[in-house]
Design goal:
The complex is a heterodimer of chains A (70) and B (926). Helices cover 59% and strands 0% of the residues of chain A. Chain A is mainly alpha-helical and 70 residues long. Chain A is elongated and about 45 Å long. The two termini of chain A are 33 Å apart. By secondary structure, chain B is mostly helical. In chain B, 66% of the residues lie in helices and 5% in strands. Chain B has a five-stranded mixed sheet. Chain B has a two-stranded antiparallel ribbon with strand order 1-2. Classes of the chains: A mainly alpha (70), B mainly alpha (926). The interface between A and B is large, with 42 and 53 residues.
Chain lengths: 70, 926
Amino acid sequence: MRFQRLTGMSLTGGLVLNYPVISVFSHLDFSGTFPPLYLFLFGVWGVLIGLTAFLMERHGRVAAPPEDGS
Amino acid sequence: MMANAWLLLTAFVYLALLFGIAYRTDRFRESGKSWINNANVYSLSLAVYCTAWTFYGSVGLAASQGFMFLPIYLGPTLLALLWSGVLRKIIRIAKRYALTSLADFLSVRYGNATFLGGLVTFVAFVGILPYISLQIKAIGFGFELLVEAPDQLSTGSTSDSTTFFVTLVLVAFTILFGVRHLDATERHEGMVAAIAFESLIKLVAFLACGVFVVYGVYNGFADLFQKASAFPELAQLWTLGHDGEYEEWFFLNLLAMLAILLLPRQFQVAVVENVNERHVDRASWLFPLYLLLINIFVLPIALAGRLEFPDGQIDADTFMLTLPVHLENGWIAWLVFLGGLSAATSMIVVESVALSNMICNSLVMPILIRIPFVNLKEGKGLNRVLLFIRRASVALVLFTSYAYFQTVSSAYSLVSIGLISFLAVAQFAPALLGGLYWRNGNRTGALLGLSTGFAVWAYTLPFGQMIQAGWFEASLLTEGPGGIDWLRPIALFGFEGAKPIVQATFWSLLLNTLAYVGGSLLTTPSRLERQQARLFVGAMSFSEHSNSLQTWQGTATPIQLQRLLERFLGKDHTRQALARYATSHHTSFADLLAADVAEAGLIQHTEKLLSGSIGSVSARIMVASVVEEEPLGMDAVMDLLDATQQAIAYGQQLEEKSKELQKVTDDLQSANLRLQELDRLKDDFISTITHELRTPLTSIRAFSEILHDTPGLPEEKQREFLGIIIKESERLTRLIGQILDFEKLESGKMDWNPQPLELQALCEDALASLGQLLRDQQIRVETHFPETAVQVEGDYDRLLQVLLNLLSNAVKFCPKQAGRIEVSVKRLEEHAEIRVKDNGIGIPEKERNAVFEKFRQVQSTNEGKPAGTGLGLSISKNIVEHHGGTIGVAPGSEYGAIFFFTIPLLPETPALPNLQGGYVPEDPDR
């Protein structure tokens, strides 16, 4: 289930971070600190990372495994 | 500006620090602990992905094409989301089979395909050369800028002597660092710890430079972007869509997605050096976060560079260094230099180690092992040979990269050089992904796909660059070879207008995939290939910690295995490895070697240890040379068959048992039903009997009371009433007698007195005893007897009872004055049949069987209930059946009833007439 969610996120991310969606934000004018495309690209990127972190870390911390004996 | 010597010194001190980290980690590991067994360290080590390309090249690209640097990091992010499925599967397989490189992985997947492993190695080697040359170039201009000519802020070109010197240092550094000794497991914990540290330095240096530029030189992002937006050519950098950029964007995303999985150094750190596959979960978001952080300042720094150097004289790839130098911040310049050094050295070390491992295990060893006079199986000190091969491979890789840099790539930007390598390793994608998820992918397909893709890559990219570098006629680019227009390397098959990297990616991956799928579908794989395909595709169904190579059906002594290991690993390492094995199996080193026959686990462990040094295919061959493989003998086959048959027999027994149980259950069920039925019958019987007994008793009592209470009753009446009382008493007696008879018959307590008897006589006796009744009723009796005596064996009294029963029934139902009864005896084949026919009311067809049931009386609506107990026929049936005959009502009579019963004839009957004499029947029946 988790992997299916991640796959969905990956596909959605691939779609959103490509033409034509990014072309919507590709213009010169900006008000505020950052150009729109800069905000959009890093924003989507950050959201993807945040969601992944939530999915991965929700099930408890990574348990310390035994040392590889070989 | 800082002193040259001081800068050089810090560079070497930094390298020494890396050594220290690696050394401490290795020592620490020998004491049984691990620093790198940590998801965060694992994620940092994956950031070896960020090389000088990221560190210098991204800014360079952003300065001319804006956001086009970003797909290289977005692609890996999109793929990292899938790591918990894809990468974990690869790791699990690699651990199961002790695979230490991508070449190893693919050759084992496609049925120990040695040639495929060699081809993968060759493609990786050739493909990675441009990438390593990029690092050499970056370190070279770093030195040049800061050490040799810090005041000139040159264009970024480097002198031959500097890069050659850099290459020499790098060879020494890599050999000392990654190929110091042979590690049996081919894991380099020290190296991983060092590159994780370098990743931290890279990030810190980049962020420091970014903060310095954005907040130190400008007043934050807003100020910088505002200033840049005053120049239209700079403002353009934060838009996309010029000149086919969206297509390029898509293809770069795709390329980077594949590269993060397929680059030899990524495979090394992500798969081979992985300690615990669960670390992948953390890395799938921490690594993208690292990428995001290191990219935040790329565009701002590029913009600042363009603003600070408006004349375009400075190579944008060097902005990271030239900006702080130009702005006279020596500390930042120094930190950036160390960051760039980290980025380049970590890439070079890991890439070279991965490549030298592939060259040694998948290219050189398979050849050496097959050359008879080299005789590896007997040789001594092979570990030195192996070490030499690996070190030579490192030198080969680095010097060839240097040569490539000198001849071809020095004219190109860092990113365009790196992309060539990305596309080269992307050619492994169909074979790897197909191998992981498509069972029908086979060796022929993999070979065809890889060679097709590699050929297209080589033709469109390096060849195209070589033409531009002046090695071949320029007309090849503009007119195509031999004037064939559609074969131009920059517009293959007429793909016009796209950048070389876009059309090369499109054609090479498309044709590669088609060739892989086509080759796989059109050819039949060997049995081993099919088996491996099944194991690889279904890998996730195996346990995470299971560890099973193909099992060995053979024996070897521990000493033989030890000697084999010593040849490749050296005495000390062999001793350490075996001691570790002994400890983990709760035995001592001495006991382990003292055994006559090595246990299967030790043989497998040996194979695993050797896999690390010489590759899995070669390791199997070497172990096979020691282990005397027992062919699966007749005995073993018979044992197997035996066991199977026992299992089958046992199954059959179980089946029979269950059938028996089912039968018993059915029996019990029917017995239960029968009991219920009997219970019901008993209740019926008692209620009927009570009723039947009460009827005569009631009338006896009623008439007795009349007689008693009426003294003056006329004598005539008195006699009549007394007659009724007597008659009813007789009926009662008869009834009780019949009940007793019936009870005896039912319970089997009846005394039988069988004797030979003659049926004619029996009939005569019966008719005689009813003579008075028949005469009273004026019933005419006809008899039809055969002339010869019909002899049967039976109980005279009981058979007489049957006959009397039938006759009295007939009398009962005959019409008064016009009654007619026929009695006949007939000889059948084995039985004698007696019939009693009357002309009474008859029996409806549906009642014909029921009349023999207890207390069943034929009801007639006209004449009311006939006299009788209702037990007579039931008793008769019992008697006849006891004699082995049948009783019934013959069908077909229109009115009147025909009762018959049969009794078996005595066997000697035909002889009887002669014995008795006098009767010589012409017709025995009539």
